[in-house]
Specification:
- The complex is a heterodimer of chains A (186) and B (151).
- Helices cover 27% and strands 13% of the residues of chain A.
- With 186 residues, chain A is α/β, with parallel strands linked by helices.
- In chain A, the strands form two sheets. Chain A has a four-stranded parallel beta sheet with strand order 3-4-5-6. A two-stranded antiparallel ribbon of chain A has the order 1-2.
- In chain A, helix 3 links the parallel strand 4 and strand 5.
- In chain A, helix 1 runs antiparallel to helix 5 and helix 2 crosses helix 5.
- Chain A is elongated, with a radius of gyration of 18 Å.
- With 151 residues, chain B is of the alpha/beta class.
- In chain B, a hairpin with a 4-residue loop joins strand 3 and strand 4.
- Chain B is elongated.
- The chains are: A alpha/beta (186), B alpha/beta (151).
- At the A-B interface, loops of A face strand 9 of B.
Chain lengths: 186, 151
Amino acid sequence: MSEEKNKPEPFPGEVHPTSGGGILVSRIDDVISWARANSLWPLVFGTSCCAIEMMSTASAKYDWSRFGFEVARATPRQSDVIIIAGTIVNKMAPVLKRLYDQMPEPKYVIAMGACATSGGPFFYNTYSVVKGADHIIPVDVYIAGCPPRPEALLHALITLQKKIKEGGKRKKIIIDRFWKPENKDL
Amino acid sequence: MTNEEIKNKISNLYPSVTFDETSQWLQTYIESVSFLPFAEFLQNDRELNFDYLFCLTCVDWKTHLTMVYHFTSTFSRHILVVKSQLNRENPVIHTVSHIWRTAEFHEREVFDLFGVKFTNHPDLRRLLLTDDWNGYPLRKDYQDPVNMIKL
């Protein structure tokens, strides 16, 4: 907690100092969003090589549990975010739709890599591939790359957290620059 | 067996079979009408003993289709590739699923994606595509404007 700004980063709200302590003023919506953003449970879902990068992101070297993603769930009933890690073919599309429908609200979707974003290398001359997972379910965050590096996935996860913390109203993300931490103290 | 021994053995019984040794494995070309007795011979012969069909596929050459079978023997480890040319308009070849059981699904896949009819196949249904699919997607002239397919 930084006393100067009276802002208990990263918790939402303001602290009004009183003798012997302080009073925290916040909004319940912000607190709920803060809690939600910091315990996103991903669904165990991977359809091709992006899933290998996703597993790498989950394991010790990159370790997405630092940001609250460690509880990967094998059932959609208990998960908050689905990371579409890989190609979605026409036969997989109804399965993906069903998994999404089975997830409880609020639910979030990350399209990881070129295939999930647009069909990628299978955009032309393929009879079996869905040209972008957003033809099936709404997507919150897209990641470029084939496959994206674990850093890119972590960036997407942090972007999703920011989107949730701002009440789902994060502006369109500019992708033509490399990500720089907005807070240089981080 | 060495390639030479396999060639001699096959040439004695099937003089019309031609060979090609320019690629990794010994290849043979046989007419599709005499393919079934040839396949049975490959499996039944004591020395050849091709008991394992490790690849079955089809190639579309635009003018014709070619069935490609890769055989090996789990005893002597020699490998033979058998190719058979098919008519593109009415591609028909006898099934080998009663000789090598693995061919049952592979032939269903080739039937699905290339439209080759395998006579006497026990269960020639679609394997991968939906039941109402039109056309054969792995043929070179397959076109689908919706999915932007034009080769």
